[in-house]
Design a protein that fits this description.
Blueprint: H1 7-30, H2 37-44, H3 48-52, H4 58-83, H5 87-104, H6 106-114, H7 127-148, H8 158-177, H9 189-198
Amino acid sequence: MQEIRSKEDILKEYREAGITDAVRKVIAQEGFAALTIERVAETAQISKGTIYLYFKNKEELIRASVVDTLRIVHDHLVTVIASADDFPGKLRALVRVQLEQIEAHHAFFRALMTERSFLHCEREDDPILERQWQFVKTITELMELGKASGHVRPGVSSEEAAFFLLHHIQGTALRHVNGFLLQPLADADRQIIDFLLNGIGTHGEF
């Protein structure tokens, strides 16, 4: 049964999305040092008081923008994976989309990586942690599909493979952010997939 949302809920969601988008723009263009409630209000073209209706302080505002960014990336990821026909196509789509989204929000993610305290999660119900688990669950389900289709070995832990893939993508993005990746980020997907499927052993094991 589809949930019925009130006009107030829709307006709140719309307002919050506009504010978190403004946060991304300020951080991406000017960095964390320039981020103030006043600057966000100016970018969102609303009053400072309106922001305080939805967020208590700047830290809550930043964390909300991280959650919203992860939601945008994950929603797009799910859509693209669903549109691919088979496991290899879905895997390529997953890696490509994640790298493309990191590229699209490059300045924002670069700023986050220099201020990693905003990514720290102390509670299990932290919204950022919950969003990160959504990525793990989505990729775990994809690995299970790979097992069913014979592309992934039956003994492989789907969840471990999901974590490995996520960390590999994030590591590639970190190299890109720090200037250590010589090739365009969008061209790194083939190397990531090859490493995931073939490993580093000459016979697949040591």
